[in-house]
Amino acid sequence: MIKKGMRRQIVLHYILVVFLALLLVEVIFLLVIRTYYYDSIYTRITTQISQAEYFYRLSSKDSPFALQELLRSFDLNNTELQVLTLDGDMITSSTGFQPDRTITTSDVPEAVGGGIGRWVGRQTGTNESVMAVSKVLQIPGHDSYVLRYVTSVERVNSDLFNVTLLSAGIVVAVLAVVTAFSFGLANSIVKPLNNITAVSAQLAKGKFNIRIKGDYRYEIGELASTLNYMAQEIVRSNQIKDDFISSISHELRTPLTSIKGWSETLISGGYDPEETKLGMSIISKESDRLIGLVEEILDFSKLQQNEMKLSIGTVGVQELLKEIILNLWAKAEKRSIRLELEAEDGIYVRGDANRLKQVFLNLTDNAVKFSHEGSSVLLSARRVNEEEAEIVVQDSGIGISQEHLNRVKDRFFQVDSLNGGTGLGLAISQQLVELHGGTMEMDSELGKGTRVTVHLQLTEPLPAVEAPDRVSLPEPADHHERKEGQQ
User: Fold this and answer.
1) 421 phi and psi, to 5 degrees?
2) How far lies 437's CA from each of 34, 171, 215, 356, 434, in Å?
3) Parallel, antiparallel, or unpaired for β 376-383 and 338-343?
4) For the whole model, what pTM was predicted?
5) Chain centroid offset of residue 334 CA
6) Cα 123 to chain center, whole Å?
7) 462 Cβ neighbours under 8 A, 6+ residues apart
8) Alpha carbons 239 and 220: distance in angstroms, whole number
9) Which range has the worst mean pLDDT, 300-304, 328-332, 338-342, 452-456?
10) Full set of structural domains in the chain with CATH
């Protein structure tokens, strides 16, 4: 007995389907064979009746001698020919027995009704299976009789029974072969699943280095590949998480050390106002840095839990990019990096101004951070069509390799961990852009720079709001006049 499980279900279902199919085929086959044999007998008898009727019409005699001649001339082997009245009373028969009995089978009324009657059943007295075929012999001006042939179908039934036994044997043999085949089929499915289940149990226990081995095909192969990929991604995520914890610990410890050190120094007293002012400035700066790190982590947590709320309004892209440049000008000036703006007038998008500023501030800050000294960072905006705007942040800095480019927007991933940060900036920017119904694409070549393209849906400006005044951007001391975009 097969124990309960998928193997048993597969075997039983497969055998059941094949058995029902074979049973249906066998029933149809036996019905066809039986119908063929019975119809052959019926056809032979009806042909003989037609000849007898033709002979009777030619003789035109209504006498016992004509009927006897009919019996002698048109008798069939192993068949009794009977002549009956229209009421079913037997007048004579080819056997000469029981001439006074009345026939009550359904073939006689059918023949009297004008057709050829056919009846199959068991004959009274002998209990033998027979077929009776009857037809009325009628000549105008003469008496009408019923000509009835009765033949045994025992031999036919015996042959049909033998055919049934043979077909049943074939069915049993086929089922035996199918059963053996179904076990092989079930094992080919169940064994890989058992292997996958065992590996999954190991993965559930935290053994993520284990993999499903075996060249499985079709859906099982896809399942195995998916689980292996899942395990690989878990290992990678754990590694990224560990790297993130290590990185964020360092990021948090550095400002905390500065704050603690200067706090203890200031508490001890004995410093002039300038030194005190310097210490307080460092404490304030490091506190802002800590707040930025914490806010970044909180933003990411909200995005992951779909709890980020947007304050939707109409945002002027040119004015937004100007604010970005003003915010980062001092940082860029320290490294002699030019911030350039090329933006078409009248580009407005629908979104949260603060969150969009966060996106482009992060993108521009990254561009400044990874640009060479004396290079430039370009912020541009243009209409792609009547429905979409394209905003680009492009630098000519160190660039990103193709290997890292595919992962740079993953959470916690950092191309260069020495530059600090949580590795969440681009992941947050990507999700914020998607929340605005836009897309963010990155193109980069190692050593030649990076281009980040953001597509956002255009909207009409608020009619009551006047366009803001032009913002004059400060110029770097060591460079030419900075190139302005369309203002």
Assistant:
1) 100, 170
2) 73, 64, 42, 12, 5
3) parallel
4) 0.45
5) 55
6) 65
7) 314
8) 29
9) 300-304
10) 6-158 (3.30.450.20), 218-304 (1.10.287.130), 313-457 (3.30.565.10)
Question: pLDDT tens across 409-426, in order?
Answer: 555 555 554 454 555 677
Confirm if 224 and 232 have CB atoms less than 8 A apart.
no
Nearest in space to 345 (alpha carbons), one of 484, 466, 485, 471: 485
d(CA 395, CA 379): 9
Q: Give me the amino acid identity at 358.
A: Q
pLDDT digits (tens, 9 = 90+) for 177-230: 988 888 887 777 778 888 888 888 888 888 888 888 877 777 888 888 888 888
Tokens of 119: 């009846």
**What tokens were used for 336?**
């002699």
